[in-house]
Amino acid sequence: MATAFQRMQEIMHTVTDLGAASAVLGWDQETYMPDGAVAGRAEQLATLSSLIHRFSTNDAARAVATEVLAESEILTDEQRRIAAVYAYDVQRATKLPADLVEESARVASYAQDAWKRAREASDFSIFQPLLEKTVDLKRREAELLGDAEHPYDNLIETYEPGMTVALLTPVFDQLREGTKNILAKIDPHQASVSDDVLYRSYPSDQQLAFAKEVVRTLGFDFNTGRVDLSAHPFCTNFGATDVRLTTRIRENDLRSCLFGLVHEAGHGMYEQGIGPSLWRTFAGQGASMGIHESQSLFWENVIARSEEFWSWCFPKLRDAFPHQVGDQTATSFFKAINSMKPSLNRVESDELTYNLHIILRFELERDLIAGTIEVRDVPELWNQKMRDSLGVIPPNDREGCLQDVHWSFGGIGYFPSYTLGKLYAAMEWNAMQAEMPDVRDRIANGEFDSIRTWLRDRIHAYGRTERPHEILHRVCGRTLTATDFLDYVGAKAARVYGF
Fold first, then answer.
1. Does the N-terminal or the C-terminal CB of the chain have fewer CB atoms within 10 Å?
2. Alpha helix (H) ranges present in 95-236?
């Protein structure tokens, strides 16, 4: 007779397999699906979401969550942690009725199509009705998930367990103030750095080939992964042995494809590094989106925007694009890709001002879920907050409130993870330097295996068996702080601008 743990595993295998099937359809919708297939795809995804919810919340799923606790003495520590993740997920899923889950999946499919059309036309009104439905569904979800100090807390919890508005607010306040202070130091020296080299003409096929070779060298395994193009870069996976990355290419902006793909490869290497004993379980994913973002931002910013990296990589870039970067040096290119000034676009903003974009989205989401603002207010409030925090005003909806895909797939509560990822990455970098004092030399020599192994052994392999705060304590020996990031980005600003 199967033990409770074995029966729990069977349920997890079924649910994760259904989730993988749903992810395949989602990936296809963003890459190759014809435009006319939206309605059919919406129903397919709604059906799969309903099945996933049913298998996660039926009598057998709920019963085994309790029964496996009685076996705790015969389980390994890892098995007990897998069981705890299972019980947590089942409990949250049980609070959400099947009709809400199915409708959310259906609306998300239509909303993603509406967002694409609205973005292309730069017209928020095309997306507004679907976003209103999405926000209504998320308000209902937040209410059903239970009492919280702020209703938005329940949505943040989906992506960052244990994080709340109350915990985020002082950290974001510190970042906002610290960013202003560093920008004030940069301001007198702003003209000393030019990033014009990034906006020359770089053929699309050559950009993609170069970017793919870079992420291959960093350690993304193309035997279990691939790269495609999409409107908004993302990483998805159908298990640790099938990881899909996408990027986008802009012929007159070298950053978009290269750094977009390095970022997504950071996510991909995390998924490829999940311990095999966790595959097809609820623990076989990243610990949180903040920890996930710490991996993508670690590779994109800490590594691929470092001076040491470009002392190694610049000769390869010059070989690939001799006419475009022939007048540059490794140092001048390092400075160009690290120029720091307020800009319109989150994805393509610099490390320093990026967090101001996230704080803006955090505040809008918080107030939308609380009901103190409505969806129709978003374009005006977006532009007002851009002016107040970054000193720039989007000229249209495409470059303003329609620049991100997240709201279209219902990812409200996701955005704070990006800034948390930056904070975690800075803390991880300090921990890595303490354990690996020659890490900068390794980067300069193009030796990335030891860096990837360090991250895999300390973070990737554990999946969701530890919560974010547990990982921070174990890896960094401290609780969350913004200080490491502000020190890190301040030092980089000083090197770039010479103050």
1. N
2. 98-121, 124-144, 151-159, 165-186, 204-218
Residues 218, 170: Cα–Cα separation, whole Å: 35
* 2/225 Cα distance (integer angstroms): 35
244 strand-pairing partners: 226, 236
16 SS3 class: helix
Residue 348 in this model has a pLDDT that exceeds 90: no
Q: What is the mean pLDDT of residues 422-432?
A: 98
Cβ atoms of 299 and 263 within 8 Å: the answer is: yes
Residue 345 predicted with pLDDT over 80: yes
Q: What is the pTM of this model?
A: 0.94
Residues in the chain: 499
Break the chain down into helix, strand, coil percent, rounded to 5: 70, 5, 25
CA 138 to chain centre: 20
Neighbouring CB atoms inside 10 A of 188's CB total 10
Q: How distant, in Å, are the alpha carbons of 91, 149, 200, 203 from that of 218?
A: 39, 42, 26, 23
Domains and CATH numbers, the chain: 4-147 (no CATH), 165-497 (1.10.1370.30)
Percent of the chain having pLDDT more than 90?
98
**Which is catalytic among the residues 264, 293, 428, 466?**
264
Contacts of 251 (CB under 8 A, 6+ apart): 201, 202, 203, 204, 207
